[in-house]
Amino acid sequence: MNIANFDPAMADIILGIESSCDDTSAAVISDRVLLSNVIASQDVHRAFGGVVPELASRAHELNIVPVVSEALARAKVDPSEISAIAFTRGPGLLGSLLVGTCFAKSLAISLEKPLVMVNHLQGHVLAGFVRQPGVPVREPSFPYLCLLVSGGNSQIVKVNSPLDFEILGQTIDDAVGEAFDKCSKMMGLGYPGGPIIDKLAKLGDPKRFSFAKPHIPGLDYSFSGVKTSLLYFVRDEMAKDPEFMEKNKEDICASFQKTLIDILMDKLVKAAKQTGIKDITIGGGVSANSGLRARVMEEGTKRGWNVFLPEFKFTTDNAAMIAIAGYFHYLAGERCPLDVAPVSRIADF
Ligand code: KG4
Question: pLDDT digits over 149-179, tens only?
């Protein structure tokens, strides 16, 4: 987009609201251009080693009004100028989703603005279409493949258009982010596990240890076996030497992370070969992983892919991606009835 020709008076302004897990976020976009993206993360869960749903809902209740007000203020947008309100309907934690959904509905009623519902996962998949002032536009062409990897999902999605998605493969048990988080907790490294393992892995030898890889047909994933393999390995080694974990944590993290990345990449390469698609993106919290980002780039160079890596701020949960997904739905004329209810599972969407 040529920002010089951008006329705010003609633009569609979308307020996006995200509250699916433990981040309360609001963002304002004006015809795909990001004007603000405010995220209030919830530190309260750290002490529990995982997200506590009840505490997440309460924190959303505290955060939602100031976060939305701040997003509008930073965007210098008056509520009356909003064209539509887009919100995350699911999947996610029901109590968390209820806060964002009820707030979005109330705002839509009071401002007499249309409401657009967004599937959180589609937000992750479309995050690369958020444009930023002063940043050159580089976007994948349709159809493209997105490796969607987060705390709740691991999928390969074929994106035919901003409104047409095909899931080519997905995990049959744990999500890859869950494997990072649970294994980090099991090794006593802390929460959230992904960034901690990522950091330690940079200092270790990824070839030192090997962990069991699953043999799942087609493009589906499984991560529960590798998790168990690590658990037994650490348990057995610690029985021989109680200091084993402390002495080898960098190599264990590097080897474990490499195993997860190998599993993800095997199927992504297979999907690209099967579909002949060369425009490849990644999305979701685990797409912040430095090892995964490097491997996708490496495979891309080797295989002639056009790789699109999200900026770090768009990898974890944020409302900018909800606003952009909502924008596409809004342009397509989709509107959401006021009796809509949030859904916790993707199957119910
Ligand atoms: O997308 P997200 O913020 O939330 C949902 O699950 O919807 O993803 C959170 C997940 C967590 O499992 C976290 O450990 C993981 O993303 N994560 C990472 C990294 N940063 C966040 N995993 C691996 N490496 C990272 N650098």
Answer: 998 889 999 999 999 999 999 999 999 999 9
CATH number of the domain enclosing 37: 3.30.420.40
User: Which residue lies with its CA nearest to atom 21 of ligand 1?
Assistant: 285
User: Looking at the domain assignment, is residue 346 inside a domain?
Assistant: no
Q: By three-state DSSP, how is residue 1 classified?
A: coil
**Contact criterion met (CB below 8 Å) for 108 and 115:** yes
Angle between the N-to-C axes of helices 244-275 and 176-186, in degrees from 0 to 180, rounded to the nearest 10: 170
Task: Tell me if 25 sits within 8 A of 323, measured CB to CB.
Answer: no
The domain containing residue 103 runs over which residues? Answer: 3-136+315-331
Claim to verify: residue 218 and residue 285 sit in the same structural domain: yes
**Cα distance between residue 60 and residue 64, in whole Å:** 6
Q: Assess whether the previous peptide bond of 91 is cis (omega < 30° from 0).
A: yes
Q: Which atom of ligand 1 is nearest to the CA of 178?
A: 12
Cis peptide before 192 (omega within 30 of 0): yes
Instruction: Give the residue, by CA position, lying nearest to ligand 1 atom 3.
Output: 316
Task: Please check whether residue 343 lies inside any domain of the structure.
Answer: no
Main-chain dihedrals φ then ψ at residue 106, nearest 5 degrees: -60, -45
Atom of ligand 1 minimally distant from the CA of 291: 24
The answer to whether the bond into 114 is cis (omega within 30° of 0) is: no
Q: Could you tell which of 118, 150, 198 is best to mutate to test the pocket of ligand 1, judged by most ligand atoms within 8 Å of the CB?
A: 150
- How far apart, in whole angstroms, are the C-alpha atoms of residue 321 and residue 327? 10
Model confidence pLDDT, tens digit, residues 104-162: 999 999 999 999 999 999 999 999 999 999 999 999 999 999 999 998 889 999 999 99
Q: Let me know whether 119 and 179 are in one domain.
A: no
Q: Which of 93, 125, 153, 180 to mutate to test the pocket of ligand 1 (most atoms within 8 A of CB)?
A: 180
Predicted structure pTM score: 0.93
- Kindly give, in sequence order, each residue whose CB lies less than 8 Å from that of residue 200, ignoring residues fewer than 6 positions away: 189, 249, 250, 253, 254
Q: How many domains does the chain have?
A: 2
Identify residue 304 by its one-letter amino acid code.
G
CA R_g for the chain = 21
Question: Greatest CA separation found in the chain?
Answer: 70
